[in-house]
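tool_call: predict_structure(chain=1)
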Amino acid sequence: MTKNLLMTLTSPFIKSYLNRFEKIDPNDKEDRVELSYSFWKDVDKREYPLKEPYNGDMLHDASQYEIVTFLYRSEELLENVFILAEFNHVLPQEYVYEWIEGTDIYYKSFVLPKNAQAQYRIIENDMLGGIFAGDKYKDRIHSMMNHPDPLSPHIETITDALGPGQDVMFSHVRAHAPHIKNLLVPLEKGGEVTPYEIASDILGYSRRINVYTPPEYNPAEKYPSLVLLDGTDFLKYSKVNTILDNLIQTKTIKPIIAILVDAGMKDGQTTRYEEYPLNHDFANSLVNEVIPFVNERYPLSEINTDYVISGFSYGGLAAIYVAFEYPDKIKHVLSLSGSVHYGKDDEHELMIKRIAFTEPRDIVMKLNVGKLEGEYHWNSPAWANQLVSHRHLVTILKMKGYDFTYQEYAGDHSAASWIEPFVQGISDTFKV
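tool_result:
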């Protein structure tokens, strides 16, 4: 059995079996196999991943957190078992499983917020490289099409995620809430999604957009508009058209038109990381080229209070910036884990500073960030993380008198976690 295992263990369920394994002679293979079999039979009777009460510590309130344990089974002795996830740990080694010697049992426990939602996958013999941003999938693309966790009942498959015929599979820590599950069921007669390619004179390159029109669309009516950055990702990973169909059908929200905006393409490369971080030319193009292009073809409202701009991560940052630059055009912002920590060189939180040192804009912001983003760094641990930067932003917004709401939800930096705050945000803003 691995050394010091009991000292570092947090799961009472695992500890109970470790105590039983310690009582078996290491050379008694038959008894170890029999106890391993009992272990897996016991696991089959429980909800997975395993959830147990936590006693709390200086950083975690026992009433708000629990122990969550992930398992893996392998008859072959592996170099390592690794969970690719964002659970407020920085080093890849902190995501490596423990092994119970002489068994097929690998396990890893974390202290997570209760009812946490997050996306993860389990990998055998990982290279243990970077786990954030671009490094996250650098050496792991090969694993994306494999089953992410053989024990998980919460599996999602994204069709053609990496290209035609290249589906990606993810595990979720928990199932979607019932009201979210209902929203992901396609209607028999849903709205339409129509693609367009738009050339930009301002930027000098083109981009793809999709325009969603609601069920029973009437071209004689004026519609409020939802502008979604990274629009194809919203369609692919969040089924946003189906969500909108169901919210409209149940009269949770009024019928709207959604403008699903992709980042531009220049010389065959995405311009996302040039456009989204505080780029005035992008904001100008979006407001004065993209929206007018759609308005020529669809009956959009011309009142700024009928416009919401939303995005996740860098898209959330861009959503804040666009409304900040054009408050007369777009009144509402729905930011999902917006990268408000963004900076250049040694200067960080540039959007926060811009808000702090300028006159307040007449906009309404809904800000959301995950509790599991407390150690999520894009470039350098010297930067403030997502969670800390959002708290800095909230302080400034209060001082400047902005109209905003702020939520720290029990989730990570992934589409699995963004669906619920997205639904809540548009339900509040476009309510009937």
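agent: The domain at 179-429 is CATH 3.40.50.1820 (Rossmann fold). Proceeding to next step.
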